[in-house]
Design goal:
The structure is a homodimer.
Chain A lengths: L3 H6 L10 E12 L2 E8 L9 E7 L8 H13 L5 E10 L8 E9 L16 E5 L13 H16 L15 H12 L5 H11 L2 E8 L6 E6 L18
Parallel strand pairs in A: 1-5
Antiparallel strand pairs in A: 1-2, 1-3, 2-3, 2-6, 4-5, 7-8
Chain A binds a DNA duplex through helix 5.
DNA sequence: TTAATAGTGTCTGTCAGACACTATCAA
DNA sequence: TTGATAGTGTCTGACAGACACTATTAA
């Protein structure tokens, strides 16, 4: 048997039938009081002209890792460089794409609405923040993207019950009322006022900025995420949506 | 612009450089009081002769889905057909495999020790249940498999704190003491006796078989998983290992 | 003054932790 | 009888839910 070095020199990567590899992303934000996901109109076959999630092929020349592919796609569409990014999962089969066997790794990103500038050069008619607040996603998307989106939404809603994820949808400074409304928009139902403050403040993940926000009637303290704070996992879930 | 039908007729899948796609699995069981994962000795380059997780290439001719690939690999090595199977995640980059850009989707499986018969034809010297009870995984594995394994272990330990996952490691009938010892082997620390029974019994996921087990001093009731029971998510986590 | 939002006080219920207690067997 | 495991009783503490209460502003 030859050694590994010789094996690799003679290795022909093209002899196997390989699936196509892609990355798709559900890029979430909250704007105008609704949870929204970025969709783009396809400008190529298959599914030409239909709405889809942001995504595309791995560029093995340009991307060193799967995350590179995801970040590149995100940057191309939104200009955002450092979002919350979580891998949702991977779907691979021979039916989801008419071109044949494909594997797509799905990420979801949370970005603050004020951080986005939909990039110039993109026709605004071809990129859109779709409202997904009402758990039904009305629009059929290209490929199986509506199923992938539903999965990401489910994951997001589940995690909101026991983590601090929604802080990543907030601008740098925010009030507890704004944060609570973000939780509620994702969950689709109200949460108790006092419990919410107790929970967030005792988690030790935010700190006062010292500034007040005067938008509402009574001014409200503003907070920012502590630099040391990673995602906080609460020991008990909110009991809104019990599985 | 041509129509989609014509586009697909002319589509040449080989014009892009595609990563290799594989599936790797951490197949867990509990035997001899320890949490173990199935490892196999590689009989081909690269990493010839080194230990690795169970895995291999997607066979686009044979497998319709990624899960098919995972189940096929599991069946080939263990004969088990219906395990608990969960997708852990996907790692793709240009450094983990000397043959170039690869994408591997990682699953972990939980199987009852008594369900396994390491398949004949396999040299027993080339397939082994590795002890991973002491959170350090001592053996370096081929590729990045030790990292993948560590990730699966982390996921498993986390989920054990708030789910009923360990029931899938039990034989059909088991006592609550046996189930508790399975939890403890995974967590690596003792849990309170009374709390444990309260938690399991109030979750309504097991039912008495009516039979007693006489192994220990005092006989113990045996239970089986309720047919209706999916994975149970507890509203509060055990507070053993707080993140 | 009123309406609206910010923020507090405090009681309840649930459930994990702790730990002492009883029960039933083998040896 | 002793030792080991099965199983119960019950108190504590942490924290979510509920909801009434006060505080501070704009209009």
């Amino acid at each position: 048997m030859p050694g590994e070095r010789e094996f690799l020199r003679n290795y022909d990567a093209t002899v196997y039938t390989r699936p196509n590899c892609t990355v798709d992303m559900a890029i979430f934000t909250v704007r105008e009081g609704a949870l929204r996901v970025l969709t783009v109109k396809r400008n190529a076959h298959p599914f030409l002209g239909e709405w889809s999630l942001v995504g595309g092929f791995i560029d093995t020349a340009q991307d060193s890792t799967l995350e590179d592919t995801a970040m590149r796609k995100l940057r191309e569409k939104t200009g955002v460089a450092a979002p919350y990014l979580e891998q949702f999962g991977t779907v691979g089969n021979n039916t989801r794409d008419p071109r044949g066997w494909t594997v797509t790794t799905v990420y979801f990103a949370l970005i603050a609405s004020d951080a986005v500038t939909l990039l110039p050069g993109e026709d605004i008619g071809d990129i859109r923040w779709m409202d997904v607040s009402d758990s039904g996603i009305r629009t059929k998307l290209a490929f199986d993207h509506d199923v992938l989106l539903a999965g990401c939404l489910r994951r997001l809603r589940d995690k909101v019950l026991y983590t601090s994820l929604p802080v990543h949808l907030m601008p740098e400074n925010f009030t507890l009322g704004e944060l609570q409304r973000t939780y509620e928009v994702i969950l689709g139902e109200p949460t108790d006022h006092k419990s919410f403050r107790r929970r967030i403040l005792s988690a030790d993940i935010v700190e006062e900025t010292g500034c007040m926000k005067h938008e509402a009637k009574r001014p409200a303290k503003t907070y920012r995420l502590k630099k040391s704070a990673g995602t906080h996992y609460f020991l008990r879930t909110l009991e809104g949506a019990v599985r």
